[in-house]
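During the reporting period, we have paired protein sequences with backbone structure tokens. One record among many follows, to show the layout:
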Amino acid sequence: MKTKLMFLILSIICMSTANAQDEKLPYYQIPDYPEEYNECTVVARMIDGLGFRYYWATEGLRDEDLSFKPSEKGRSTKETMSHIYGLATVILNSAKKQPNVGNRPEDMTYEVMRKKTLETLKTAADIFRESKDLSEFTMVFKRGDNETVFPFWNQINGPIADALWHVGQVVTHRRTSGNPFNSKVSVLSGKVRN
């Protein structure tokens, strides 16, 4: 009986520690909205919404979820996460006013990729939140001597919308592989219901 009680107590402590560590990652819940509405705070909030959805779409994925593919030619969940990380990097490079130079996501563990993606989105959102004029942010792709520049408009319908699309795929994949999205997560409020 004593052994069972000790095991139960240790299990509760381990779960609490894991939850506390997870809460330290950005986007466990969506940040408070800014006092001021302007083009930059709206974009920051869009990225915050993306980060919140990504956090919960990727929370608690198992090996079978990560390797799940909807078809032989489709991307696995982990490959989809890698693509989202690449899109997050494009968003951050725009925020930092840096060109994208053959950005290929390196091979990372699920935990590292998830953490880096969330941190990348948070950094980009913070930069935009403190800015006043989106026209100064372009999206630049550099390949050798060739450089292609897009206005910020393309950032919205390109990487930001594409990343949201792919987060939805991760949710669909995890449901299909038997690990549904946490039903207590409210994407409307940006919080987890008790």
